[in-house]
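#lab-general

N.A. 3:47 PM
ok so I finally got the sequence cleaned up, no stray characters, all 312 residues accounted for. can someone with queue access submit it? mine expired

B.Y. 3:52 PM
send it over

N.A. 3:53 PM
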Amino acid sequence: MDTTLADRSAALQQRSQRIRGVLLAILAANWVVAGAKLVFGLLSQSAAVTADGLHSFIDGGSNVLGLVAMGVASRPADADHPYGHGKFEALASLGIGAMIGIGMLELGRMALDSLLHDVHAQVTPAMAVVMGLTLVVNITVTRVESHYGRKYQSSLLMADASHTMSDVYVSLAVLASLGLVALGYPKADGIIALGVMVFVAWVAYGIVRQAVGILSDTARLDPAQVAQHTMGVAGVRSCRDVRSRGMEESVYVDLKIEVDPNLTTAQAHEVADRVERTLHTAYPQVVDVVVHVEPEHDGTAAHARAPATESH
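B.Y. 4:20 PM
back already:
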C-alpha cells in the first residue's frame, strides 16, 4: 500500500508541474496581449481599448495567482494538512471569480459613460487590426487552456480558461461597438457593454459556485452507486453512510459496511481491503478510501467476537 500511495503522490506532483507549465505559457501570452492593448489604447487615447487592456492584465494576474496556488497545492500531506493542500487550487479559482467580478464592474462603468455621458472610442483602422490580432491570441489561449484543464482535470485551468473567454467576449464587444460607432450608432457602445457585463457576471457565478462546492465538501460520488459497487464485494452484508468529498481529480471516500459477525478481525479487514480495491478500480479519481467495518447486528455474542475495525 505504501508503494501505491507513493506512486499517487508522484503522479500528483507531476500533474502540478505540468499545470504550472501551462500557466506560465498562458501568462506570457496574456501579458503580451495586455501590453499591446494598453500601449495602443494610450497612444490613440481610446478608453475602450485601454480598459480592455486592463482586463487582459487581470487575466495575467489570475495566472500569477494560479502559479502561486499550484505551488502550494502540490505540496504533499503533512501534520497540519493530513488531506494535502489541494483546496488551495479551489481558493485560487475563487480568487479568479472575484477578479472577473472586478472586470464586470469596469464594464458597467464603461457602459454608463457611453450611455449617459456620450463617451465613445475614436475608431481607426489600426485599432481594429490590433483588437482583431489580440482576439485571435485570446481564442487560442482559451482553447489550449481548456484542453489541458480537461486533460489534467484541473478546476484552476478550467476556471482560468473561462476567465480568458470572458476577455474574448469583451474584445468581440469592443470590435462590434467600434463598427457600429463608425456606422453612426454611438449608443451601441454602451448597450453592447451592458450585454457583455451580464455574460461576465454569469461566468463569475459559475466559477465561484464550483470553488465553493469544493471548499464546502460537496459530495463527489453518487452514494447509491458507491453502495452498489460495495455490495458486489464478497463478504459485505450491507453498506451505509457513504460520504465523498474533494477535488474532481482527488476524491476521498468513507463508508460503513456490515460483515458476518463470526469473522475474525483479520478476515473483516480482508473484506474491507477488497472494498477499497473495488472502489479504486471503479473510480480512478479516488485517492483514499476509509472503510468502517461493523458486525451484522444479529447477536451480542457475535458482536463481541468481531469488534468494529477500520481499514484505509
